[in-house]
């Protein structure tokens, strides 16, 4: 049914407009008082809970940052079956993001190109919504992803991240430092060790007892991935998220004219799967077993989730396939995990 709707209706809409329409429906789930009913329909029927970061995750599968940029749909997304919802990216200062159009489908590749530019209402407002969501019965684990405000120079990034941390760490279940989006000028340069180390040290001090993770790009070299991973361990971070979107356009099946028309931005979806899995294995090879590693990029099926878990992921996230497979995607993942993991343990 959703596939038919997608092909006949949603593909005719501007992708960002379609996203907002879907998001409006998701936000209605708790408002209509049907969150508990929906949750019983979408949740895993077996026990695949994960304990990490000092938190209990009902399922290893969650929603990556980028879908709920302003922490407005946490309850509804949790009801749809996501064990954790990572909101953001949130910046200290409110900002509108880049000019539209800024979101593009590459349907033949089940991929998306975005150059949203961290559009959000700022950390102060988001902190109020996250705080309200934490009181919601049966809520998912709530991660908060923070990034640099566009109006702040890269040289002043530490103070900007500290402002967001002060507002959001007290209400987040875990906090993520995003230094890997390609859509904020200069941001990826913060992944360089000499810049990343003081930034993470400062945020970790300010975050206090809130678990802290760093999110990295798939476009780092293997050596850079290993260096950042070792830095995270040396600084006592709680985890690493791998990976963000890619600047690469290699191997796409979509008509090159469509790809060129989409222009600059981060590519997410199925084409990212192989590199994301490679980065996961690189990280796991150099970090302790107890470090939380969240794998994201090209995840579509329960088989994909199990593959990431077997490769060393503690948790797995998805996003782009949600746009292609519809509102029951997390349920499909959870039911698939029920079958696959039960078969393994039989």
Question: Would you give an account of this structure?
Answer:
The chain is of the alpha/beta class and 346 residues long. The protein has helices at 2-8, 15-31, 35-42, 74-79, 123-134, 157-168, 193-207, 222-234, 256-262, 273-286, 302-310, 320-325, 329-345, and strands at 50-52, 55-57, 61-63, 84-90, 103-106, 111-114, 141-146, 174-178, 212-216, 239-242, 266-269, 292-296, 315-318. Helix 6 runs parallel beside helix 7 (193-207) and helix 7 (193-207) runs parallel beside helix 8 (222-234). The longest helix has 17 residues, at 15-31. The protein starts with a helix and ends with a helix.
Shape designation: globular
How do the strands line up in the largest sheet? 3-13-12-10-9-8-7-4
**End-to-end distance, in Å?**
34 Å
Unreliable spans are none
- Supply the number of helical segments: 13
Strand residue content: 15-25%
Main β-sheet, in a few words? 8 strands, parallel
Task: State the share of residues found in helices, binned by percent.
Answer: 40-55%
Please state the structural category: alpha/beta
Total strands: 13
Mean pLDDT across residues: 90
Q: What is Rg?
A: 19 Å
């Amino acid at each position: 049914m959703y596939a038919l709707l997608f092909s006949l209706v949603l593909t005719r809409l501007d992708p960002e407009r379609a996203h907002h329409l879907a998001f409006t429906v998701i936000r209605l789930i708790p408002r209509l008082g049907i969150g508990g009913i929906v949750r019983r329909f979408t949740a895993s029927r077996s026990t695949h809970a994960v304990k990490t970061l000092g938190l209990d995750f009902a399922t290893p599968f969650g929603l990556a940052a980028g879908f709920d940029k302003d922490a407005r749909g946490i309850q509804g997304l949790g009801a749809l079956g996501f064990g954790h919802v990572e909101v953001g990216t949130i910046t200290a200062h409110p900002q509108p993001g880049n000019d539209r159009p800024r979101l593009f489908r590459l349907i033949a590749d089940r991929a998306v190109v975005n150059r949203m530019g961290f559009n959000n209402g700022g950390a102060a407002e988001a902190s109020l919504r996250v705080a309200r969501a934490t009181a919601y019965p049966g809520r998912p684990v709530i991660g908060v992803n923070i990034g640099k405000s566009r109006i702040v120079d890269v040289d002043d990034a530490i103070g900007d991240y500290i402002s967001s941390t002060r507002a959001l760490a007290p209400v987040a279940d875990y906090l993520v430092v995003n230094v890997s989006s390609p859509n904020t000028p200069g941001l990826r340069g913060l992944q360089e060790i000499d810049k990343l180390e003081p930034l993470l040290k400062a945020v970790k001090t300010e975050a206090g007892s809130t678990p802290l993770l760093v999110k990295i790009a798939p476009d780092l070299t293997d050596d850079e991935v290993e260096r950042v991973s070792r830095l995270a361990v040396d600084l006592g971070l709680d985890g690493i998220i791998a990976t963000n979107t890619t600047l690469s356009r290699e191997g796409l099946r979509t008509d090159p004219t469509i790809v060129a028309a989409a222009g600059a931005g981060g590519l997410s979806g199925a084409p990212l799967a192989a590199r994301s899995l490679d980065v996961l294995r690189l990280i796991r090879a150099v970090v302790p077993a107890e470090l939380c590693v969240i794998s994201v990029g090209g995840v579509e099926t329960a088989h994909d989730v199990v593959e990431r878990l077997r490769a060393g992921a503690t948790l797995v996230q998805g996003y782009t396939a949600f746009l292609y497979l519809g509102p029951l995607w997390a349920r499909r993942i959870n039911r698939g995990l029920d079958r696959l993991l039960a078969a393994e343990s039989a």
